[in-house]
Specification:
Layout (H helix, E strand, L loop, with lengths): L21 H32 L1 H10 L3 H28 L6 H26 L1
Length: 128
């Protein structure tokens, strides 16, 4: 009797127990930050449109930007932008042939995480 499937494959994957490499986390975060930017641009464009429509609209947007919740949302959007920028620069550097090895990819991912964390914290200090 011939088996149709490879017996070495796991039957039931428990996603909570799978250990991903650091490069996978940076890749997943890069995609998530892109989605956040795509969705957040609508909110920012609405605020821009409202602020340019009239003086009253500008005053409303200005007042809204003093709210802690709105500051948190803006910080989140700018954090996504900064992470996406830093990870994108890493991809551009890799396109030039630098850091394409397994060790270089891991080091590049670690650098992206550290640089992004520092810049995002500095951004939070600046906003608050």
């Amino acid at each position: 009797m011939i088996k149709a499937v490879n017996s070495q494959r796991p039957v039931n994957l428990d996603l909570r127990t799978i250990k991903l490499p650091v490069t996978a986390y940076t890749s997943i975060l890069h995609r998530i930050s892109g989605v956040i930017l795509f969705l957040g641009i609508a909110v920012l464009l609405y605020g821009l449109d409202k602020s340019l429509a009239s003086q009253e609209g500008f005053a409303e947007v200005k007042e809204c930007l003093t709210s802690p919740l709105v500051k948190f949302v803006i910080w989140g959007l700018l954090s996504a932008l900064l992470y996406h920028l830093v990870a994108g620069v890493r991809h551009l550097i890799m396109d030039m042939g630098i850091g394409e090895t397994l060790e270089g990819g891991k080091l590049g991912s670690q650098i992206v995480l550290v640089v992004s964390a520092i810049v995002i914290l500095l951004l939070g200090v600046w906003i608050w």
